[in-house]
Design a protein that fits this description.
globular; about 25% helix; about 180 residues; Rossmann fold; alpha/beta; seven-stranded mixed β-sheet
Length: about 180
């Protein structure tokens, strides 16, 4: 997916990826990474990973954990990556409290997410089908307002780009950018 290529290479230093899933972002990390710590609540999903993490040009660690309760040291990450994860986190406020805790004061949050579309018709459709979609889509919410969520949880968005990706409009409006702690 081209969106990952736009945001992942911007990570540097000591990096935390929240919701690594099956490791789809791994090919896009640059050599500017010292260490990548990756969390996901699903070890089963992680085991579908096809990248040999022993051959990555940086240290790598996978931890089974949820974003709302990170078993990590405060102020320890230069960059935090979240891609296509905010739609499923049950308690966003707790997750962002943890993100702020572990991100260095000078660190950056790099995000790429799908969410609330700008068109009224698509928004209405998202709202109508979201309860059903959430049940069949592993907790995925189609209509979360990503920039508002990020700002409401103590971050300033430095850069933000948006567009519809090709595909089904209710699930294809994307946001990506960089945010820092207020």
């Amino acid at each position: 997916m081209k969106q990952r290529e736009k945001i992942i290479p911007l990570a540097s230093g000591n990096v935390l990826e929240i919701g690594i899933g099956s490791g789809l972002n791994l090919p896009y990390y640059s050599k500017n990474i010292k260490k990548l710590t990756a969390i996901d609540p699903s070890k089963e999903l992680w085991l579908r990973n096809k990248v040999n993490t022993q051959k990555l040009p940086f240290d790598f660690q996978f931890i089974v954990a949820e974003a709302e309760n990170l078993p990590l040291t405060s102020d320890s990450f230069d960059s935090i990556i979240i891609t296509y994860t905010l739609c499923t986190i049950p308690n966003l406020h707790s997750a962002f409290s943890e993100i702020k805790r572990v991100l260095k004061p000078t660190g950056k949050l790099l995000f790429c997410e799908h969410g609330k579309a700008p068109d009224d018709f698509v928004q209405k459709y998202q709202a109508l089908i979201n309860p059903f979609w959430k049940r069949i889509g592993g907790g995925c919410n189609l209509n979360r307002d990503i920039p508002t969520i990020i700002k409401a949880n103590g971050f300033t968005i430095q850069t933000l780009e948006t567009m519809y990706l090709p595909g089904w409009k209710p699930a294809s409006f994307n946001y990506w950018g960089i945010a820092t702690i207020k």
